[in-house]
Amino acid sequence: MMKMVKNAIGREVPLHVENFRTLTPFAGAVVHTPLIKKDKGNRNLPKLSKIVPTLQDAISQTGLQDGMTISFHHGFRNGDYVLNMVLDVIAAMGIKNLTIAPSSLTDAHIPLIKHIQSGVVTKIYTSGMRGKLGEQISQGMMDTPVLFHSHGGRARALETGDIKIDVAFLGVPSCDIYGNANGYTGPSACGSLGYAMCDAQTANKVVLITDYLAEYPNIPFSIHQNQVDCIVKVEAIGDPSKISTGAARFTRNPRDLLIAQNTARVIMNSGYFEDGFSFQTGSGGASIATTRFLRDEMLRRKITASFVLGGISQAVVQLHEEGLVHRMLDVQSFDAEAIRSIGTNRYHQEIDASYYANPLNKGCAVNKLNVVVLSALEVDLDFNVNVLTGSDGFIRGASGGHSDTAIGSDLSVIICPLVRGRIASIVERVQTVITPGESVDVIVTDYGVAINPRRQELVSSLKKCGLPLYSIEALQQKAQNIVGVPQPLEFTDKIVGLVEYRDGTIIDVIHQIKA
Questions:
Q1: At what angle do helices 336-344 and 314-321 cross, to 10 degrees?
Q2: Buried-most residue among 90, 268, 419, 503 (CB within 10 A)?
Q3: Are 223 and 200 contacting, i.e. CB atoms less than 8 angstroms apart?
């Protein structure tokens, strides 16, 4: 016979029904829903709020403990304040042995070094790092190798559980008291929160850090109130003026502009430059400049692009506002104009990193690209590309969306000068493989263009337009004739970095520089 018990309002209900889940009797309207106001008749109760007074209060509320994993996003690039701010408080609280999983690390995060040295941080998952931090890691600072992944690879890892975030600390330029947040309103607007959105969706606990509280509900919102555990208001979360410094800038260098012009000619004569085509330009100066050189030809041929993807810059916004680009899919806003546009333009769509480039979801946007333009530190005779380590072996870049877009696009164009100073960019063997040569189609340098032998159909069309075509071997020899053959670098056996391809497999390793 079915066992019955009285619930909190005196009704008899069963504890068990055959072929059904275990049943729990009703215990009261707010017993199992703690965020609901508990005294409906008391009008003096404050409105529901997730705001806590300090970062220390927020950290304590999440239950952060030694050995856990925390994450951050890099929407502010070189202007980020949040990562350093949070780690300083965590260190003061005595929490140690943390794994940090920021979407990327920049020059703004040099203070992370002291937290590694003190044992607060013992493991890192990220897309890249630069400056003194990269140098210290390259010299063997950490006992455990840093895991480097692409933006799409990070989204995959978060969704599959390969990376399990215990607490995400996310800087948001605009937030209401219940946790609805966006990146394009408030004094510290940074634009798209495409990387933060993945963390908010997958982390066990989510702490929002803001310097601007908006009226509830803060619409539109990128991060939803149902994803957020607590909120901390601070004086400032970042400096938006530093977003467009470093990689994301428009170049005035004549050599970069020459490369950009030749890159535009490659695209125009590739067969993909037709009405309704789609494209992405990377964050390098020459990549962004390429967009500007496409404009005149689009006007001349009276063609428009269906969409532009990835990090969105002023040059792309201008094309859209002139009617040359129909839609923009923005995972990261590169400058003030892009930030303005995403906040006001319904066809400027914020997307998260999974939508952008996760290779294992049901269809990421990179798969719809016709053309992508990407920069490189090195390219080798097998068309492998390095964007992570310099010619000196030090970590000084980021995987970013490089391998994601190279394989997803119909035409991947890699641009770099033949030499930088006294260093060759076209080499026999790159220091570190980030993007495998099988996904690379064309290399454009200031001395000439090389086409991957896998793409023979491009050779005849690009010959006709008068571009200086060479084999990759000929370009490598040109570079060697200019700068000579460098002394080989010396490394120890210690692995300081594991390079993960976007599907989760290990494509290369980085060894410690020998002192």
A1: 40
A2: 90
A3: yes
pLDDT at 246 (0 to 100): 53
In the Cβ-directed half-sphere of 453, how many Cα atoms lie within 13 Å? 5
pLDDT at 38: 65
Nearby residues of 344 by Cβ (< 8 Å), 6 or more positions away: none
Q: Is the dihedral of CA 222, 224, 230, 231 positive or negative?
A: positive
Q: How many helices (H) and strands (E) does the chain have?
A: 14, 29
Residue type at position 166: D
Question: In this structure, how many other beta carbons lie within 10 angstroms of the beta carbon of residue 175?
Answer: 32
Complete edge-to-edge strand list for the sheet that includes strand 385-386: 385-386, 378-380, 426-427
How far apart CA 187 and CA 211 sit, in angstroms, is 8
Question: What pLDDT was estimated at residue 47?
Answer: 72
> What is the reported pLDDT for 292?
85
Name the residue type at position 103.
S
Q: What is the DSSP letter of 49?
A: -
d(CA 56, CA 92): 9
What's the rounded Cα separation, in Å, for the pair 318 and 295?
A: 9
Cα separation, 341 vs 320, whole angstroms: 10
What span, in angstroms and rounded, lies between the C-alpha atoms of 457 and 479?
A: 26
**Which of 338, 351, 401 shows the shortest CA–CA distance to 372?**
401
Model pLDDT, residue 41: 73
Residue range 279-334, pLDDT digits in tens: 998 666 787 788 888 998 999 999 999 999 999 988 899 999 999 999 999 999 99
Task: State the Cα–Cα distance between residues 40 and 217, nearest whole angstrom.
Answer: 21
Can you spell out the DSSP letters for 424-486? ESEESS-SS-SB-GGG--EEE-SS-EEE-GGGHHHHHHHHHTT--EE-HHHHHHHHHHHH-PP
Q: Which of 377, 428, 431, 368 is nearest to 402 (CA)?
A: 377
pLDDT for res 35: 72
Q: Are 66 and 122 in contact (CB under 8 A)?
A: no
Phi, psi of 14, deg, nearest 5: -80, 155
Rg (CA), the chain: 25
Burial of 114 (0-12, 13-18, 19+ CB in 10 A): middle
| Amino acid letter for position 104 | S
Residue 174, strand partner residues: 182
> What pLDDT score was predicted for residue 2?
80
State the number of CA atoms in the 13 A half-sphere of 414 facing the CB. Answer: 33
Domains of the chain: 1-37 (no CATH), 55-242 (3.40.1080.10), 254-489 (3.40.1080.10)
**Inter-CA distances, 139 with 134, 490, 491, 493, Å:** 9, 12, 10, 12
Which residues, at least 6 apart from 234, have a Cβ–Cβ distance to it below 8 Å?
A: 55, 85, 209, 210, 211
- Provide the 3-class DSSP secondary structure of residue 367: helix
CA–CA gap between residue 278 and residue 435 (Å, rounded): 21
Spell out, as residue ranges, where the chain has pLDDT lower than 50: none
